[in-house]
Write a structure and sequence with these properties.
By secondary structure, the protein is of the alpha/beta class. The chain is 30% helix and 21% strand.
Length: 423
Amino acid sequence: MTSTLLTNFMLLDPRDGSYRAGYKVLVRDKTIEAVTEGPVEAPDAATIDLGGRTLMPGLIDCHLHIVSVHLRNANDTLRHMQPSLMNAYAAIKLKRILMRGFTSARDLCGADRGHREALELGLLTGPRLSVCGRALSQTGGHSDRRTRVDYADPMGFDHMTTTYGGGSGRIADGVDEVRRAARDEIRLGVDFLKVMASGGVGSISDPIHFLQYSMEELRALVDEAERADTYVAAHTYTAAAIKRVVEAGIRTIEHGNLIDAEAADMIAARGFFLVPTLVTYGNLVKYGKDLGYPDYSIEKSKRVLEAGNRSLEIAQKAGVKMAYGTDLMGEQMEYQSDEFAIRAQVLPTLEVIRHATIRGAEVIRMEGRIGVIAPGAFADMIAVNGNPLDDISVLTGQGENIPAIMKEGVWVKNELGLSNWRQ
């Protein structure tokens, strides 16, 4: 059993916002055994001096897509690339995500049980991953990749990559098909289910304001998830769409840019979660055309971008629990940490840090295990140059100000010459 004793750091605790010196953290194997100001009896432990840096929990991104490889084909990679090549790109993305300090992440369609298990087995280097497999979409919904001149049956061979043959989405219409699709994704070992419940930016035939799926279909999906001891996440933008999915019992609302006060109050009253993804829209507007993103999607991005900051204010005022998400496609994943700076323009810095730690842990249903530095938690921690409470920019970029990252008791990034290092 490996033991490590961390000393000489400033402890940032997102639970109460404290920032204190004088603590020691004892790690045994994968977990934190003690966080104390007193003496520690651990003669077998390697003592690590962090040189006065900030020690805080590993970060959590609750909305990303590891198999979205190129922005030009962001939503249907497998129709343009062999799975073997796509997974090679995904492996690189996963390592870069971890090197930015994100020790846990939730993939919102595309990644599957195999990606999760490869990380758990150490075959890939990256964050702990929660996956939903393929998102459920109605015909003509956000995961229906046909154009408006394509008369092919959505279940036909040409569309296998978005139905039965892998990919990011599957089409299911009617209560019976929704139940069958949900059961099949659960059979395949997903951690939660995702539904496309409104129009989207990256799809051609569904304007943002379209309401997708009937209430009966949404409730059937929630019923299947709850009976399998899991939950549903919903792609939604407008207030009307949000109200419908909350009424159906869907636990996490993704994006939510066009939320209103009534919808926010409904989320808060149920104790559900909002996962904004503001960084993606500004980047699509700035860089999308040069990277081959279609004009119709850029125009949709402009609409939801304008409402982005206001959505944070509305949700915060209502007491909605928010988690950190990015939703960056293809090459734009390098901007993952810019979401911190965007949110900090509107919300208190501590609250933004909570989004990426304790709130993310709640969304993933791992409260007390990730997002905190506390006894019994996984030893997922990052050492930061500077104080994020004073200057959140130290968490941005590619991890330049995060010289050391520990995941499950092992230093996976080491620019300080630390022991217990794994390349």
